[in-house]
Task: inverse folding
């Protein structure tokens, strides 16, 4: 035969009948309801079979800008360190939200660059702080000054987020006094701009994240905490009543809202006259009611298997039969901070105002909170140092309410955490020791006595 290869479908070729080459199925096959492959393409003319080659491999394009490169570095740092000792999961709920905000603000971008350099330094402590890290920090502070001095209204969200990220950078580098300075700066910014500026979900998240640092700054400055006022308490209410808020986030917000009164409590403990006043007793009772009424919400979370399960302990050196295995580490962090604060307020109420609480119930709830903190240690033990950062302050508070042998264990567990940080170049005790040093400068032993010993 002469001529090109037939374009008919395989069924028509096999039956040796003319194919009308209609796609996707010819008329003959449609009438007889036969399964077939569609007719060939005109390019298939010729005697040689078509040559097939594998598709080209996909290669990632290089970052098109510095912002894209920074975003990729941050995402890689978050994802590659999950479930490791250098996890960023517990550095705050703002961290996973930062990649989407890179490229819109120089002040935030330069702060994130500093933060990542400090995080890399923790993973390679032998290198130490580099000259480029100091330049990045200077650039971030320069951008901060330009943003605050610029005419018009600065970007509140970006400015506050940058101060939070720079505060994390200071902690990673062991510069605790600078961490307090950044907290005071945020306090001044929010106080000057007022609660009406905090409206967006992102701004509300940043506000909650900075609460603890601003409380510490307020205590060290021996001033009333401006957040412990009705207009600022409304901001906490707005944050807690958002429709998309989860139960654990609502507990976190309520805990920090109660925590804002701690500055007043610290000053009150310095003066026997103030402690004995009806006003102080009333405010302390209100604080006690705030933290104790969250008990049902916390218990509901602990009974939810989608949040946490209680498993038999695998470590012989831990004096508890079971431990809590949380599906999300930030949930364990939030609950431990809540339990620590509950223990502290319970100890104060039992010591100074025993007539205002039920002693049996208060003691039982306090011991339960103590045990709950201890049961979280086994989960995070393999995540030293960063994964256990939040436990270094919670275990000593739990130890103040434990019996002798359990107290020794809690303090040894805390020492294990601190030593792991020192190996990685992170002195986790610095923030607390710096805070205690500032409190001791008041020359009032009663104040730091209850802070350290719970009495």
Result:
């Amino acid at each position: 035969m002469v001529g090109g290869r037939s374009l008919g479908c395989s069924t028509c070729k096999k039956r040796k009948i003319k194919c009308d080459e209609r796609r996707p199925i010819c008329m003959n096959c449609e009438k007889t309801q036969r399964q077939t492959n569609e007719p060939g393409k005109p390019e298939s003319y010729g005697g040689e079979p078509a040559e097939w080659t594998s598709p080209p491999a996909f290669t990632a394009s290089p970052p098109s800008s510095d912002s894209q490169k920074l975003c990729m570095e941050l995402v890689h740092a978050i994802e590659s360190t999950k479930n490791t000792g250098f996890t960023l999961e517990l550095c705050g709920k703002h961290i996973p939200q930062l990649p989407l905000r890179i490229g819109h603000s120089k002040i935030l971008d330069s702060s994130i660059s500093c933060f990542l350099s400090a995080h890399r330094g923790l993973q390679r402590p032998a290198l130490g702080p580099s000259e480029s890290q100091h330049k990045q920090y200077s650039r971030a502070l320069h951008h901060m000054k330009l943003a605050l001095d610029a005419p018009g209204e600065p970007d509140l969200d970006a400015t506050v987020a940058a101060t939070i990220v720079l505060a994390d950078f200071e902690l990673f580098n062991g510069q605790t006094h600078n961490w307090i300075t950044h907290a005071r700066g945020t306090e001044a910014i929010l106080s000057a701009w007022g609660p009406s500026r905090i409206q967006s979900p992102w701004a509300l998240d940043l506000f909650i994240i900075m609460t603890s640092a601003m409380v510490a700054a307020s205590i060290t400055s021996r001033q009333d905490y401006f957040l412990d006022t009705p207009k600022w308490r409304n901001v906490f209410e707005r944050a807690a009543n958002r429709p998309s808020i989860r139960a654990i986030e609502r507990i976190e917000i309520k805990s920090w809202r109660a925590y804002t009164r701690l500055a007043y409590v610290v000053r009150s403990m310095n003066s026997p006259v103030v402690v004995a006043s009806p006003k102080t007793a009333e405010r302390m009772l209100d604080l006690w009611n705030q933290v104790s009424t969250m008990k049902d919400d916390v218990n509901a979370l602990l009974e939810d298997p989608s949040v946490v399960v209680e498993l038999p302990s695998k470590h012989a050196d831990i004096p508890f039969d079971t431990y809590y295995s949380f599906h999300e580490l930030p949930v364990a962090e939030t609950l431990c901070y809540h339990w620590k604060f509950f223990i502290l307020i319970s100890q104060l109420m039992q010591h100074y105002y025993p007539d205002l609480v039920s002693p049996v119930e208060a003691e039982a709830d306090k011991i339960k909170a103590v045990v709950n903190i201890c049961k979280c240690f086994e989960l995070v033990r393999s995540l030293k140092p960063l994964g256990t950062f939040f436990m270094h302050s919670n275990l000593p508070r739990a130890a103040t309410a434990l019996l002798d042998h359990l107290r020794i264990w809690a303090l040894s567990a805390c020492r294990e955490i601190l030593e792991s940080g020192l190996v990685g170049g992170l002195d986790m005790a610095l923030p607390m020791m710096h805070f205690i040093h500032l409190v001791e400068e008041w020359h009032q032993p009663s104040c730091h006595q209850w802070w350290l010993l719970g009495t």
Observations:
- The two ends are 107 Å apart (CA to CA).
